[in-house]
Amino acid sequence: MRSCIDCGDVIVGRSDKKFCSGHCRSAFYYDKFEVIHLSHGQLYRSFIETEEFC
Ligand SMILES: [Zn+2]
Predict the structure, then answer these.
(1) Tens of pLDDT along 8-50?
(2) Are 48 and 24 in contact (CB under 8 A)?
(3) Domain extent listing, the chain
(4) Could you list which residues have their CB under 5 Å from ion ligand 1?
């Protein structure tokens, strides 16, 4: 059983998911790429929107 790498909740569903929800995925990537977001906002935005929920 896997845990969400953002909030630590147990992930229900596909076993290859890293996040329990899209919200946690967004929060995680926002934290990780905040600097990129600040300097390359459009690039960050397209990265998040094209990334498959996983
Ligand atoms: Zn989570």
Answers:
(1) 999 887 668 888 988 888 888 777 666 555 555 555 555 555 5
(2) no
(3) 1-54
(4) 4, 6-7, 9, 20, 24
Residues near 33 by beta carbon (within 8 Å), at least 6 away in sequence: 44, 47
Ligand 1 center from residue 32 Cα (angstroms): 15
Q: How far is the CA of 6 from the centre of ligand 1 (A)?
A: 5
The structure's pTM equals: 0.51
Q: How far is CA 12 from the centre of its chain?
A: 16
Contact 54, 16 (CB under 8 A): yes
Compute the half-sphere exposure of residue 9: CA atoms within 13 Å on the CB side of its CA.
10
